[in-house]
Amino acid sequence: MNVNDVMVTDVASCSPQTSLQDIAMLMWNSDCGAIPLVDENNHPVGIVTDRDIAMGAALQHRPLWEIRGEEITNGRELYCCGPDDTVQQALELMEQHEVRRLPVINQSSQLSGMVSLGDIVSFTGTERLRKHGNKHISSKETMEFLRHVSAHHQSHKAAATL
């Protein structure tokens, strides 16, 4: 199964200069937990999650309307996948970099969708076999991924004690 079989193609995005308040409202209105930041050519340059908004406000002691998306994502590497990548490749990339969402880019490196942990989980097991032919994701693979990504990470614990 490929990423294009499970990805969401109707993706809300915004510029890096967008305020966290506007990004939070975009998340609310789009019913999502992450918004990709794109440049003028629709190339992803970052991603802001709902957790990023909460931590950005808490750590910067500034109102959300004063903090720009680029301030949260600046210096953080962005990981993307392609629509023709296998779901297994996307899972491995997510697991390796401890992320739960990946922007999907086309051959021109433009945003063409998003794939998330939830998208992949919805195709896990056999309940979807009738709807999608023989395409499914192994429950074992998904559980291993969930176990790794959902675990507490030492780097976050160390930062919390500073």
UniProtKB/TrEMBL annotation:
SMART domains: CBS
Record PROSITE patterns: CBS
Domain spans labelled CBS: 7-64, 72-130
Keyword Coiled coil: no
Keywords of the record: CBS domain
Keyword tRNA-binding part of the UniProt annotation: no
InterPro entries in the record: CBS_dom (IPR000644), CBS_dom_sf (IPR046342), Diverse_CBS-Domain (IPR051257)
Lineage top rank: taxon: Bacteria
Name by which UniProt lists this protein: Inosine-5-monophosphate dehydrogenase
